[in-house]
Amino acid sequence: MSYREINFDGLIGPTHNYAGLSLGNVASAANAGEVSSPRAAALQGLAKMKQLLDLGLPQGVLPPQERPHVPALRMLGFDGSDAAVCAAAFAADPALFRNAFAASSMWTANAATVSPKPDTADGRAHITVANLASMAHRSLEAQETEQWLRMAFTDEQHFCVHAPLRYGVHFGDEGAANHMRLAPAHGAPGVEVFVYGEEKGGRFPARQRRRASEAVARLHGLDPKRTLLVAQSDTAIQAGAFHNDVVAVANEQVLFAHEHAFEDKAKFYAALEEALPGVVIIEVPSSEVGLEDAIRSYLFNSQLVTLPEGGMALVMPQECRDNHRVWDYVQKLLAADNPIREAIVIDVRESMRNGGGPACLRLRVQVDEAALAAIDQRFLLDDAKWERLCRVVEEHWPERITPGDIGNPALWDQCWAARRALLAAMRLA
Ligand code: SUG
Predict the structure, then answer these.
(1) Residue 1, pLDDT above cutoff 70
(2) Band of residue 386 on the pLDDT scale cut at 50, 70, 90
């Protein structure tokens, strides 16, 4: 049976801005207060989707969420018309309002954790929506994410969508950004690796709770013999690797990871080799790419994809080419004997400046042909739809947002209208 991997990218929303909301995300902190370019950002994201489509890979898209997030503000006691709710919230608590204005649902690697059919007890793909409890602005995403995923994967013969874990930060779950799946091929039973953080009192928080990962593995009906729970290294977290996908990525039989990604890498590698004989572990030593360069360039946040003609490509941000140590390493990697044979450099600079690289912008779903056909096709991209979405962005997305614009009612109206136009173009209105 032929299996495909679909990347569902989050379309970058019209409120994309730099509010410095994410403690532990060094790019978000460094660019706080800068002027953003939502239109350019969304077009960069769309260009990435088109590049993957042109490689012959199926591509999905999830719409941006409603921002400013009026329902959340209403839940918090603001009332009146939508504009009145926002005006009252902005006047009372501008920091809260900035959380309700964030376009962070673009990073769909944090939307959910996905276990494809070959790994689960009931033979359906299981999808657990992430609660993103650790950051206020991100915790606002779960409800609408659940709505879109239930719509896209509505066919219960093939898919089972689970609600976000409850009980707050005690079960903080950041989705696929802390989950890797390795398998001889997409359609074969795989080993699922859940990477969690341990709170050690450092300056930056660990976002993924071990108990959350354990719960997701149970809900998905995974085989304990092919499920690994691995601690993320605190050194990496404290250097700014707030998610595992900032320092490691996997695809089929390949694990590509930084030397300091995991707390006890010897134990992890041994367990992985036992569970998946033939695994190829490509570890990048600090002597070649230090953690700081890895985090600045987002080398490990490349999308590692299997090409239709065989072999793998790393779809990497141009910040990798801008960093000569990283770029030198990439040349060595491509020349060496391993399945990675191509580096495709893309520009997602607007997202990168908030700590979101190529892999953050996509949620991977591996499906057989019947499951692919069962997905609501409105969430899948083809050339014509891609053109349509580009036109909506060009016409409706704000060109720039300064910190002073965030309280401007005319901007709120523009952002709501832009999203409505996009939903209409996707026939999701
Ligand atoms: O959660 N940045 C996101 C970036 C998420 C990246 N995703 C993955 N690694 N998979 C975050 O920290 C910044 C928003 C701001 O500061 O305005 C932000 O939310």
Answers:
(1) no
(2) very high
Q: Is 360 a catalytic residue?
A: yes
Pocket test for ligand 1, best of 17, 18, 21 (most atoms within 8 A of CB): 21
Rounded to the nearest angstrom, the distance between the alpha carbon of 130 and the centre of ligand 1 is 14
Catalytic (active site) residue 243: yes
User: Tens digits of per-residue pLDDT, 189-237?
Assistant: 999 999 999 989 899 999 999 999 999 999 999 999 999 999 999 999 9
DSSP structure class, residue 32: T
Q: Which residue's structure tokens are 């080799």?
A: 273
DSSP annotation of 298: T
Taking the C-alpha atoms of residue 266 and residue 111, their distance in angstroms, rounded to an integer, is 30
Q: How many helices (H) and strands (E) does the chain have?
A: 17, 15
Q: How far is residue 173's CA from residue 375's CA, in Å, rounded to a whole number?
A: 25
Distance of CA 144 to the CA centre of its chain: 16
Chain centroid, CA 406 distance in Å: 25
- Provide, rounded to the nearest whole percent, the portion of the chain with pLDDT above 70: 100
79 Cβ neighbours under 8 A, 6+ residues apart: 85, 88
Candidate list 137, 243, 258, 396, residue with the active-site label:
243
Q: What span, in angstroms and rounded, lies between the C-alpha atoms of 8 and 3?
A: 16
Domains with residue ranges and CATH for the chain: 3-67+102-275+353-425 (3.75.10.20)
Q: Smallest Cα–Cα separation from 259: which of 304, 318, 299, 312?
A: 299
Which ligand 1 atom is at minimum distance from the Cα of 18?
Answer: 17
pLDDT for res 161: 98
